[in-house]
Amino acid sequence: MSIKPGFVGLGQMGQPMAANIAASGAELIVYDKAGSVERAPEGSTPVTSLEDVVGMAETIFLSLPDGPVSITVANEISKMSNIATTLVVDLSTVGPDAAREASRILGDAGIGYADAPVSGGAAGAKAGTITVMWAGSGNEMERHADVLKSFSKNQFHVGDEPGQGQAVKILNNFLSATAMAATSEAVLYGLSEGLDMKTLLDVVNVSTGQNTATRDKFPDRVLTGSFDAGFKTALLAKDVRLYLANAQKADMPDSVGSLVSGIWNDCDDALPGSDFTRIYEFLRDRKQPGI
Question: What is the widest separation between alpha-carbon atoms in the chain?
Answer without folding.
Answer: 67
